[in-house]
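Researcher: I'm preparing a figure for a lab meeting and need a structural model of a single chain. I don't have an experimental structure, so a prediction will have to do for now. The sequence is pasted below. Please return the structure as tokens so I can convert it later.
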Amino acid sequence: MAGVRVKEGETFESALKRFKRLCEQEKILSEIKKHQHYEKPSERRRKKFIAARKKLYRQLKARKG
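Model: Understood. Here is the structure written out token by token.
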């Protein structure tokens, strides 16, 4: 669990900014989004296959151009 200690004389905004940065580094929000609803294993495989295909197309396009 991410936590930030507020330093002496530190503003709330700067502490909140540090907290948000810490959450982003620990990938907390992406984990929450991933677990919001159940994803069937077949859907997971399909998404992985589509992502790999997109990556391959991007690599081929970069070589040509």
